[in-house]
Specification:
The chain has about 375 residues and is mainly β. It has two helices and 23 strands.
Length: about 375
């Protein structure tokens, strides 16, 4: 009898051990099962896992020879900076001949986007493919090269295109109740644009005129400002109703994220000389590239030495689901200050605002002292 009881106890203990193992396995399965999905391999310390890097797309900013300019857009999903070793090739479509190639290295900061600009060189006119690879990521884009108007290349034809011309603001309307904006055919001059200033310079091009693909260029200069605070202006925006920054953000009832917030795309500039609490290292001019319709935005910084009384040559491109902005120091647009991009929706717009003020008198009358900024915008080119 005693021997039988020992056997029963042994069997019971064995069953308990098996059950515990089975329960542990089930618990382990449940834990890992809850973390499955596209972010499974993303780790807190990067851990050498390249899946934290996403090569999001390629945008052709300028397809004119010899000014080819390509934006390659990345995202680092990890929590540490990521070093990128990339290479690119420009090849013909019909013969797969390599026209130009190159390599570059750069660092993408943690949990951020990065827009890498490259300048392929060729005199070939026709269908080409630009391809980019780096850190086990790959993307390519097919496009047509064309010559700058007035130039010809062997085997090619003049592709036309826009140019900087006199009278670029002909037909624009000035809304300026306080009288601090001066509009001529060639320049928009703004004086002491403070935080609650309402004003705009705009033109209605008709329903859906600005669609999914365009490149606009212009240049601007900030001549003075209250550098300790953030005066704000928009040197470029698209919308379907005249919109200050206040209208984009708050709509007509001063409530952020309300249903009457205005839709559109915008580039904002906030000149300043002091860092803020959220960005202690971000001195210099701060700005945002935004798609207000779908709610995407990217914050960038321009070094202080590149801001006051310096001409900033700017290119804004929408293509392949992105809005890309590049700031240059030179009129040839080869010396880059910085670049930024956001994903954009599918809405088209009819109004181009070549200037927009902040316009928050109704929503934030307590802002004091009144930050201000003065300067001008000129040489608008909407391309072909």
């Amino acid at each position: 009898m005693e021997s039988k009881r020992k056997i029963e106890i042994g069997i019971t203990i064995g069953l308990l051990i098996i059950a515990a193992a089975f329960i542990g396995t089930m618990n382990q399965y449940i834990t890992f099962g809850d973390t499955s999905g596209p972010e499974l391999n993303i780790t807190d310390d990067n851990d050498g896992d390249e899946s934290i890097l996403v090569l999001k797309g390629i945008v052709v900013i300028d397809n004119q020879i010899p000014n080819l300019t390509i934006a390659v857009i990345f995202e680092n999903k990890g929590e540490l900076p990521l070093d990128i070793n990339g290479s690119w090739d420009l090849t013909t479509v019909d013969t797969d001949e390599t026209l130009d190639s190159g390599t570059d290295t750069f660092t993408i900061q943690e949990e951020s986007n990065f827009t890498n600009i490259i300048f392929p060189t060729t005199d070939y006119i026709g269908s080409v493919i630009i391809s980019y690879s780096g850190n086990d990521q790959y993307a390519s884009e097919l496009f047509e090269t064309r010559p700058v108007p007035g130039t010809t290349f062997t085997g090619g034809s003049d592709g036309g295109g826009g140019s900087e011309e006199k009278g670029c603001y002909d037909g624009f309307t000035e809304y300026d109740p306080e009288g601090n904006i001066t509009l001529t055919d060639d320049r928009i001059t703004f004086y002491r644009m403070h935080r609650d200033y309402e004003g705009a310079v705009y033109k209605n091009y008709g329903s859906g005129y600005f669609g999914q693909t365009f490149t606009h260029t212009f240049q601007f200069m900030i001549t003075s400002g209250n550098e300790s605070f953030e005066g704000t202006f928009m040197p470029w925006s698209l919308c379907n109703e005249i919109s200050t920054f206040h209208d984009f953000m708050y709509g007509d009832d001063c409530i952020e994220d309300s249903s009457d917030d205005h839709d559109g795309l915008s580039l904002t500039i906030q000149p300043r000389a002091e860092p803020d609490a959220e960005h202690p290292n971000g001195t210099g001019t701060r700005g945002f590239v935004r798609d207000w319709t779908i709610g995407t935005n990217f914050q960038y910084f321009l070094p202080l030495e590149d801001v006051y009384n310096k001409t900033i040559y700017t290119t804004v491109t929408r293509d392949n689901g992105f809005l890309v902005v590049v700031f240059y120091r030179d009129s040839a647009r080869t010396d880059i200050i910085t670049s930024a991009s956001v994903e954009t929706g599918t809405e088209s717009y009819r109004i181009l605002q070549a200037f927009g003020a902040r316009g928050s008198k109704q929503c934030a009358p307590w802002w004091s002292p009144l930050a201000f900024v003065s300067g001008y915008i000129e040489n608008l080119n909407l391309g072909s």
